[in-house]
User: Fold this.
Amino acid sequence: MLEHFFTCPYCWESISMLIDNSVSNQSYIEDCEVCCNPIQVSVQFSNSELIAFQADSIEQ
Assistant:
């Protein structure tokens, strides 16, 4: 597991998330620990190293 810090796309607070680095491509929705809004998270690993991370609002 890898702890990754990023900014919530809703409340702009800095938050952290534990990411499973044993799965190379992941996409899921997780709620912000501050404002509880749903965040679309997409991550990509290569040899267990984080190479891409994206956290977006699910609203259009």
User: Anything to note?
Assistant: The chain has one domain: 2-57.
